[in-house]
Every structure is written in structure tokens, then in C-alpha cells.
Design a protein that fits this description.
With 269 residues, the chain is of the alpha/beta class. The protein contains 15 helices and four strands. Helix 4 packs antiparallel against helix 5 and helix 5 runs parallel beside helix 14. A four-stranded parallel β-sheet has the order 2-1-3-4, with helices on both faces.
């Protein structure tokens, strides 16, 4: 029986993109033909699974991959610690994470700089509840260090880190690496990789059955705003404000551990 593999990522760091791609590859079908139940069987989102009143099975029906958003020490993962064997982590340049959060939150023009500087002061917090779910630094450090991760998952065999920037530039290459690391369906099928990348686009996923909400929840939620097909680009910190970029550089100088993580993943420039 295969062990569990966690797909972890911080806020705005590409976790959903990687999750959809691996789901598509495992099922070898386009989003319109994949039911939510089928997706749950191979690669569920842990929080979404819980929302449907279910847990990750640990018998022979266990999924290949489970998406998680929080820190590895959170109580929600306690039932699965012994069964965990691998971690795939999506990391993204913290400057772009901050720019993406600022863009998506649509603050008033005069608030953009202050919001960005608050995020920098928290080392680019990656969740809506930073006190509970960690900053960019904490999230990346705890998930990507095999030694630290094994403190949470005693049977962990390996950790694979994928950069979100590489996923965007070469989704087929990133998916290939993910599948090779997962190692559950034999050698990588290149035709299957190409089919998956072509079919599992954000637009096709948005209207697919796997994006279905909980039954009855639509009555209590505001209608979803459809995102434009070509969203505005993520602003750089310098574009948000010259003092914002200066605040980020100051953070790099003052926090060596944060700076070391930034250099480790190639985000120093």
C-alpha cells in the first residue's frame, strides 16, 4: 500500500494549479469529465473533503495526493502522520506573493503601499490567519526541510520542492517532475502529460464539476465574481512603491534566516 503524499503551498503560491494538474494526470480525463467524487478518490483537498463531512481514508482506498494549506504541525493532520511518506511543496517568490495579495485584495490606491509593507513586516504572511498558519518564512522552512518535516511525519521518505515560477514557465516539465517523484503509476507517460496540460487550464477547471460547492451553500453565499480571462499582471514591489521595495530589502538585511531561504530558492534578484 502506498503512503500518503501531501501537496502543500502557502497563499497565492500555486497550490491549486499543481493540484489540478496532478488530478488531471492521475485520472487522465479533462475537467468536464471528472466528478468531484473521482477527484476525491485520487487527490482531494483536505479542507474541502472535511467540508463534505469526510476524512482521508487510510485503508487500501487512500488517495495518492492530498492538498494541504496550513503548517505541518497543525492538529488537522494528526490522523495522517504515520501514513505520510512524501511531501511536494510549491514555493513562490515572496515579493510576488505580496504583489499578488495586494492585487487581489483591490485596496484603495492610497492603501496599497501600507498593505504591502504590513505583509513584508510579517515576512510575507501566507494565510488569512498568520498567527495560526505561519508566515512565508515559517511555512517554507517547516515544509521544505526534511529534518523539520520528519519531526511531524516520522515515516517521511523525501520532500520535493517545485517553484511556482517553473510551473508557469514549463507546466509539462513541472508535472513530469511531480509524477516522477510520486512514483505510483509507473514511468511518466509523455502523451498523458501533454493531454493534461492542454486540458486542465484555469478556465476549464472553473466551470467543471470539481469546482462544485457544497449542496445548498449557494443560498448563503454571494455569487462568484468571474475573473477576467486576462487578469491584470502582478505588480512588483517597486511598482507598488519605491519605499515598499526598500522595506523588503531591509527585511533581507535584518533577517538572515529569511534571506537564506530566499537565496536557496533563487529569489535573491
Amino acid at each position: 500500500m502506498h503512503g500518503l503524499t501531501w501537496l502543500a503551498a502557502g497563499r497565492q503560491s500555486g497550490g491549486n494549479s499543481a493540484h489540478y494538474l496532478i488530478t488531471g494526470y492521475l485520472l487522465d480525463a479533462p475537467p468536464a469529465e471528472v466528478s468531484l467524487e473521482e477527484a476525491f478518490e485520487v487527490a482531494p483537498n483536505l479542507v474541502r473533503l472535511f467540508s463534505w463531512g469526510r476524512m482521508v481514508p487510510l485503508d487500501e482506498n487512500r488517495p495518492y495526493v492530498v492538498k494541504a494549506d496550513g503548517m505541518p504541525g497543525e492538529e488537522i493532520l494528526d490522523p495522517y502522520r504515520e501514513a505520510t511518506e512524501k511531501v511536494v511543496y510549491l514555493v513562490r517568490d515572496p515579493r510576488t506573493v505580496i504583489g499578488s495579495i495586494v492585487r487581489n485584495s483591490r485596496p484603495e490606491p492610497g492603501e496599497r503601499q501600507e498593505r504591502a509593507k504590513r505583509l513584508i513586516a510579517r515576512l510575507g504572511a501566507v494565510s488569512r490567519s498568520p498567527d495560526e498558519r505561519g508566515t512565508w518564512e515559517q511555512h517554507v522552512r517547516e515544509w521544505t526541510s526534511p529534518r523539520r518535516a520528519r519531526a511531524h511525519f516520522p515515516n517521511l521518505k523525501d520532500v520535493c520542492v517545485l517553484r511556482y515560477e517553473d510551473l508557469l514557465a514549463d507546466p509539462a516539465g513541472a508535472l513530469r517532475r511531480f509524477v516522477e517523484f510520486l512514483g505510483v503509476l509507473g514511468p511518466v507517460d509523455e502523451d498523458r502529460v501533454r493531454r493534461t496540460v492542454a486540458a486542465w487550464t484555469p478556465e476549464s477547471v472553473r466551470d467543471a464539476p470539481i469546482s462544485e460547492r457544497l449542496p445548498g451553500m449557494a443560498a448563503f453565499e454571494e455569487p462568484r465574481r468571474r475573473r477576467p480571462s486576462a487578469p491584470e499582471p502582478v505588480p512588483s514591489l517597486a511598482e507598488i512603491g519605491t519605499d515598499v521595495e526598500a522595506a523588503y530589502q531591509r527585511r533581507l538585511r535584518e533577517d538572515e534566516e529569511f534571506a537564506a531561504l530566499v537565496r536557496r530558492f533563487g529569489y535573491e534578484t
